[in-house]
Amino acid sequence: MNEPASGASYYQQIARWLANAWRENRNFMLLLCAIVFFKSAIADLSSISGASMLPTLVDGDKVWVNKLAYDVKVPFTGISLTRLSDPARGDIVIIDSAQARKRLVKRIVGVPGDQVEIQNNALIINGVPVDYQVLSRGSGEIIIEEALPGRNHQVRLTQYLMNSSSRSHGPVIVPKGQYFVLGDNRNSSADSRVYSFIPRDEIIGRSRSVIFSLDSDNYYLPRGSRFMAGLE
Q: What does residue 64 show for φ and ψ, rounded to 5 degrees?
């Protein structure tokens, strides 16, 4: 009869098994670690769910997230090692929101020190109304082009409001280290009007392109026109 292996012998067997597993799968494990590190610290994809960023982003879009746009962070944390640049008005940012308890994709309209106000859907920054022009009118909606300083983008305004107070807000002063964000689907977005200001350390990164898009209303077929599409 074989006697049970001693404690030392048992751990030696485990060590040999781990060593063999490492030798046989080393390349795969190194690749896996590299992918996880890349997604955590450098870049990732984020899924768009819902309509809060229409017409810029649609449900089913997968956007590229540049995690080195503003900071170099410790992987798997929100701790910044060094700042590379500051978030700017007009940037589309991905936010790990503690207040909302979920990931948000919104557009920055107010940076620290700005006074932000919305009056009957008109955006006012530091007392100056933001210029816009009407691009189209449809059934219950208007598409406008809004001219933030240095960045033009489209905004959707509707007659049917998720929250009747969304037509007007403020004025509010954006605190140091925080940002005021809005959805491009201006009357149907839970953003800084609901969740208040966004701390810088909750901003994961910036997006400037759609990588691919799947249409959930059409058997999840690809939307070819949105592949590698740039974002305003």
A: -80, 130
> pLDDT at position 8, please?
66
Give the domain extent around 16. 9-41
Residue 4 placed within a domain: no
pLDDT in tens, 37-72: 788 889 999 999 999 999 999 999 999 999 999 999
Task: List residues with catalytic annotation.
Answer: 52, 106
Q: With 50 as the cut, is the pLDDT of residue 162 above it?
A: no
d(CA 42, CA 73): 9
CATH of the domain at 126: 2.10.109.10
Q: Model's pTM, two decimal places?
A: 0.86
Q: Does 147 have pLDDT greater than 70?
A: yes
Cβ atoms of 140 and 82 within 8 Å: the answer is: no
Domain identity same for 26 and 79: no
Same domain, 178 and 224: yes
Q: What is the average pLDDT score of the chain?
A: 90
pLDDT on residue 165: 60
